[in-house]
Specification:
Deoxyhypusine Synthase; 47% helix; alpha/beta; elongated; single chain; 6 strands
Length: 314
Amino acid sequence: MSKYREIDLTKVQRYSIKERLNKVDISSFARPYRKGMSFKEFTSLLPNILIGSDFRQLVNGIVNAAHKKKPIIIMMGAHVIKCGLSPLIIQLMETRIIKCLAVNGAGVIHDTEVAKWGITSEDVGKALNDGSFGMVRETPQFIHSALEYGANQNLGMGEAVGEKILQSDAEYKHLSLLAAGYRLNIPVTIHVAIGTDIIHQHPEANGAIIGELTYRDFKIFCYQVSQLEKDAVVLNFGSAVILPEIFLKALTIARNLGHPAHGFITANFDMLRHYRPQVNILQRPTQTGGHGFHFTGHHEIMIPLLVASILEEL
């Protein structure tokens, strides 16, 4: 027998499991799949627990915002285009669900290449070895020509390139987010960090013009953010640094000018959890009301799931 005293567990106070506060009950469980189900029936099978519950809340929030004609802003990294998801984003634009789309500088490149030639995304590792990475002629020539035109017409970057793609003989212009934005009168703003994009390493590049047009897009984006209000929605697809930072500055400008940009819903979709989306999109903007959601997964699965869920509910 041990020489040390032990606690007497026979005296602990207990109560019935029926009186306990439980976070899970079987009414929230997933239900078996039945062959031939519709997509809406399939999504209703998802467990109403943790991210399954969050996903339902977000879809309901987006649908509610669409019905009430509240602003819905999507920000996204260029990877979304490379994953072949432009048709789904365009579908949201054509159904007037999206009120504004913001992308980074690489988004212009991939969008233009898809529209003009139906191909994009070179093998960086292989091309870097011999210095040919980013050195194709056609992409920078087309984009910088569009930017020159935009500077002469006092346009934003997304507006200028979108108009040029739409007016061109591009075989795949129906897949262009920029062209869709121009055609539908939905602002597509481009937010460039000079030196990050392959078109900056060509003789056609004009830093003054790039800066002028992307700054104009920043101010256009700020106006869109100033229209946010209770129950509006902001979604970020895969931008880990640039757009979370842009959004935070735009939001503080909107609030500084007295706009009621509080109480909205935010959500971040990405393959990993990153600091800036977590803080600049989900936490800080919703401190005064609203709610932030995070969904981890591959864009090529999560975004089609989200878009289909929204359209089914609408």
